[in-house]
Specification:
202 residues; 73% helix; Rhomboid-like fold; mainly alpha
């Protein structure tokens, strides 16, 4: 009996030693790590790297970098609080979405969100510079609300998230001046809602 007790205890110890940290969500984790590198580079270059590569603004269409920044601006952030806030949501929502829909779908959502927010900002808000993953975060939020979607049904969670989300963004856009691109949030949410509906329908 004594030997069996210690054998079981030793087996549990050996099993615990076999546990390892896994790279469970490569796209989301890669995004977080790359964004961290961009933040460090921004501080080391006193903001020059963000201005050149990771912020979209109304630059000339003859410059190839204008088109690059339409996508890369989602990797740049204005400061550590901005970065940490977005990455917390990315790490909370992203792995679940990547597991459900696959890495390719997550890459496409990130790229489409970056392109849509970048192009709309360039076209209609020439005096605004935009950077950060907030649009991607709101795309993920709306995608998450569609996870229980079934053909012929509209989950109440989708309706509530849409009402609260859009209402908050409209309110902040009208009454709160905090240098946050509410339009980028709304556009990201629209991309996420469309992606969530389409992917779940398939």
């Amino acid at each position: 009996m004594y030997n069996q007790y210690w054998d079981r205890k030793e087996q549990r110890y050996l099993n615990s030693m076999k546990r390892r940290i896994t790279f469970n969500s490569p796209i989301v984790l890669g995004f977080v790590i790359i964004s961290l590198g961009v933040m460090v580079a921004n501080y080391l270059t006193a903001g020059v790297s963000n201005q050149l590569l990771f912020t979209t603004y109304h630059s000339s269409l003859t410059s190839p970098m204008t088109y690059v920044r339409f996508f890369t601006h989602v990797l740049g952030h204005a400061g550590w609080s901005h970065y940490i806030g977005n990455m917390m949501y990315m790490l909370l929502l992203g792995p679940m979405l990547e597991e459900k829909y696959g890495s390719r779908a997550i890459i496409e959502v990130i790229l489409v969100t970056g392109l849509v927010t970048g192009v709309v900002t360039w076209m209609f808000f020439p005096g605004i510079a935009l950077c950060g993953a907030s649009g991607v975060v709101f795309a993920f939020i709306m995608m998450t609300s569609f996870t229980s979607f079934k053909e012929g049904e509209i989950p109440l969670t989708v309706i509530l998230v849409a009402i609260i989300f859009i209402g908050q963004q409209v309110y902040e856009g009208m009454f709160v001046s905090d240098n946050v691109s509410n339009l980028g949030h709304i556009l990201g949410g629209m991309v996420g809602a469309l992606a969530g509906y389409t992917l779940n329908k398939k």
